[in-house]
Amino acid sequence: MAKESSWSMSRMAGVWKRKVVQHDFYDAAGQVAAVLLMNSPSNGRWEYEEYLRLLRVRRFNKQQPESSVGRCYFLCADGAFSRLQAYIEEERKHRPELRPFSHVPFCDAVIGDMDSCKNPPHNYGTHGSVDGAGFSLSAPTEGYATVDDIPTSVLDQIHERYTFTVAEFTRMSATMEGASLAEWDKLDAKRRDELLSLPFWLYVRCQSTTDFMKALILLNRLREKHKEDIVPIPPHVLRTESGKRLLETGGAIIPNAGSIGLDLDPERERELCAEACKEEAVLLPTYVCMGALGGRFDHEMASISVMLSASTRAHVVLINSNNTIFACQFNGWTQLVRNARCEGVTCGLINYGTMKECETSGLQWNIAVGRGKPSESQDLVLGFGKLISACNSIRREVVTIDLRRQLFSTRSQGGSNTKQAPANERDDEVDEDHNPPTIFSIERCDGDETKVGHSC
């Protein structure tokens, strides 16, 4: 099996870091640097409409030129492209706003081992196929061994065609404004051989990486190759003094929050938030992924594993109609400011292994374990096969999660105690003295706060 080498997926060593999460992909999506559609049998109208919404908002938005917020790539994995294409072809019959997508790509590249793509689009199987703008669309017939083997010239073509696509969409939308479906069909017939609507086809044979990981490695290569397109957009809460004060205090208790829970100590919660805010927030690109949840269980678990492994490079968010899921900052702080219009209060803090140290604020059932200080939750053992924080509830405007390993650990070896290095001087790999990878999940809602709440 071939192995990828360009993106080390292990966690990077370094000092404690703080990640501030305030999702904007529900509306403006200025923080979003990539949108991925995975191939899942459960994909349906919701996934396709969310993909198209982000495409319109993030790429074809006349009110917000993309140059002001940085470039956002759109990728489809394997068979997801053909299913999305079929959906658009059917919908465009009665939705004029979708008709330009017969002539410009609605994704930049299709990537994967193509095991679920039975009938690749015409001309993709031949090396050197070109579209009407002169861009080569195809991989060699035998594909590439790994994502690293994709030539930099192909990365450049993806980048250049991206710019061409935006200009072509704008021109065509203006030229064909108000045109009937019959008029669009005539245009289709004239341009059928130009292949302008087809994305790049990247067949990667590697079987030691999932299609999801292949897509993330490709994104990393594109961003490294064209750093001029990177425009870091901090969460809104970090752009104002009032927002920074909100993070420092934890904010107010949200309406209808219950009074029964664990470690609901206002002073301790404020202290935790204030301590977190002493660390500078890291700015990571946000990658939004549909199609990773639902369908086969092994597919879901593999997607979560890839999300965790990529967490030092990007804020990867897995979404469906019910969930928003992301990785917490490893050996550091995570602060979440809930989007009250689109995110509910029911949540979960799920650690993939036994938690050594953890402290939270802003939850109905806070956690304070392994810190050597009295708490109502100090005797809880959090871990798989034990207890995980499911069906929890957000109680304050800000949720703060502290996963640092503060205490020195000792081991008895041959009758002597060996003092271990502090967590902020750790090696790359996770060992038994570190907290396990941890994710946070939050329910999606329809914008009516009166309808959100516990479902378990």
UniProtKB/TrEMBL annotation:
<dbReference type="GO" id="GO:0009229">
    <property type="term" value="P:thiamine diphosphate biosynthetic process"/>
</dbReference>
<feature type="region of interest" description="Disordered">
    <location>
        <begin position="411"/>
        <end position="443"/>
    </location>
</feature>
<protein>
    <recommendedName>
        <fullName>Thiamin pyrophosphokinase thiamin-binding domain-containing protein</fullName>
    </recommendedName>
</protein>
<feature type="domain" description="Thiamin pyrophosphokinase thiamin-binding">
    <location>
        <begin position="343"/>
        <end position="406"/>
    </location>
</feature>
<dbReference type="InterPro" id="IPR036371">
    <property type="entry name" value="TPK_B1-bd_sf"/>
</dbReference>
<dbReference type="GO" id="GO:0005524">
    <property type="term" value="F:ATP binding"/>
</dbReference>
<dbReference type="Pfam" id="PF04265">
    <property type="entry name" value="TPK_B1_binding"/>
</dbReference>
<dbReference type="InterPro" id="IPR007373">
    <property type="entry name" value="Thiamin_PyroPKinase_B1-bd"/>
</dbReference>
<keyword id="KW-0808">Transferase</keyword>
<keyword id="KW-0418">Kinase</keyword>
<dbReference type="GO" id="GO:0004788">
    <property type="term" value="F:thiamine diphosphokinase activity"/>
</dbReference>
<dbReference type="GO" id="GO:0030975">
    <property type="term" value="F:thiamine binding"/>
</dbReference>
<dbReference type="InterPro" id="IPR036759">
    <property type="entry name" value="TPK_catalytic_sf"/>
</dbReference>
<feature type="compositionally biased region" description="Polar residues">
    <location>
        <begin position="411"/>
        <end position="421"/>
    </location>
</feature>
<keyword id="KW-0547">Nucleotide-binding</keyword>
<dbReference type="GO" id="GO:0016301">
    <property type="term" value="F:kinase activity"/>
</dbReference>
<keyword id="KW-0067">ATP-binding</keyword>
